[in-house]
Write the structure tokens for this entry.
Amino acid sequence: MLLSNVETIPGKSIVEFYGLVSGSTVRAKHFGRDIAAGLKNLVGGELKGYTELLGESRQEAIARMIAEAEAIGANAIVNVRFSTSSISQGAAELFAYGTAVKVA
């Protein structure tokens, strides 16, 4: 599956549009990571536990978006975007979306 954050795939022609596809995941913070993040806030630096959590969430949302596109016959997704939102105290959604197309 080809993914692009612009409206085209360089070197390819869009021959069919299938419409919007999306994938999302909701993740909660881990208690252990919260403790480590609280300590890191005192001295500064990257919150690696949260960086890993966001990376895993992004990959899961992308995989779900790709599965939806494959199910309708697409071989590429253009104009891919990400969004996040707070669901509850300590939980957030990561949402990936784009336009499923067939390219040749």
